[in-house]
Amino acid sequence: MEPQPTPTTQDVFGPTLSNLSVLAENAKRQADTAQDMEHRQLRAYVSLTPGTLADFVVGKSPKLNYTVTNGGETPAFKLDFTSATDFEVRSPSGTYERPLAPPSHQPYEIGIASKEAKPANVATPTLTQSVYDSVIGNKIAFVYFGDAKFIDVFGIQHPVQFCFFYDAAAIARGTGTFCANHNDYNG
Fold it and tell me: Residue 68 in contact with residue 120, Cβ under 8 Å?
């Protein structure tokens, strides 16, 4: 009978070490998933809701009113808005293109506490008779687009994109309507 070779450490413990490596990788993935869930449950969630379009009168600068809300469990800090207004051919589907007009920039150093809503307003260009007639005649709509970003309590920056429009029906109703596109509050 021939002598059997002496087993090496790899022969004896190799499968166990390999299994430990897999277990360690799985544990790390679970820890990362738990941390991600914690951040998603506790972070701020900022959204905007269209309001009225006040002073929609020829020769005046209409004031767009909307509400900024944090529906999350913790405050949102350093809100920073970039927005633009445009008059576009009215879309029955509520889908609009982003405006070519240069956006205005509105930094807000204040935070929005958890479950808090704050009103905001934006001045728009002076309304001409032809634009007024086209909006009231349902040929064009006043469209408000914007991007925002904020920082949550974990120090992570989140983007927000919003769009609402005011056509003849929205002006008569007294509140704007969300566009069918360009709204993303899940950043």
Answer: yes
